[in-house]
Amino acid sequence: MRTINIHEAKTQLSRLVEQAAKGEPFVIAKAGKPLVKVMALDAPESGQRQRLGFMAGQIDAPEDFDQMGRSEIERLFGGEA
Q1: In this predicted structure, what is the pLDDT of residue 40?
Q2: Phi-psi bin for 36: left (phi > 0), alpha (psi -120 to 50), beta?
Q3: Is the pTM above the cut of 0.85?
Q4: 29: which of 2, 36, 43, 70 lies 20 to 30 Å off by Cα?
């Protein structure tokens, strides 16, 4: 893996980031001491994101979930729910 000094990384950041995104990670060093590793994210493309229902069947909520702690909440806030 290539090590780039911080000054060179600042002057060539766009090119280096583009290469890292294509699978060529690199390390940024300051005074010869490695500081950070830059590499592509393993994230889904925007069209592949699935949010709603992503844990379907993995979580069980009790039937009275919406009533849990009701008396405590009413006591704390002094009103009817």
Answers
A1: 93
A2: beta
A3: no
A4: 43
Q: Pick from 28, 30, 52, 48: which is nearest to 38 by CA?
A: 28
Query: CB of 6 within 8 A of CB of 32?
Result: no
Contact between 29 and 36 (Cβ < 8 Å): no
User: At 38, which helix (H) or strand (E)?
Assistant: strand 33-38
Beta-bridged to residue 2, according to DSSP, are 26
φ/ψ (deg, to 5) at 2: -75, 140
Could you give the domains of the chain?
Answer: 1-40 (3.40.1620.10)
- Which residues, 6 or more positions from 6, have their beta carbon under 8 angstroms from its beta carbon? 28, 29, 30, 35
List, for residues 18-72, the tens digit of each pLDDT value.
999 999 999 999 999 999 999 998 876 666 666 778 788 888 888 888 888 889 9
**Token digits of residue 56:** 């379907």
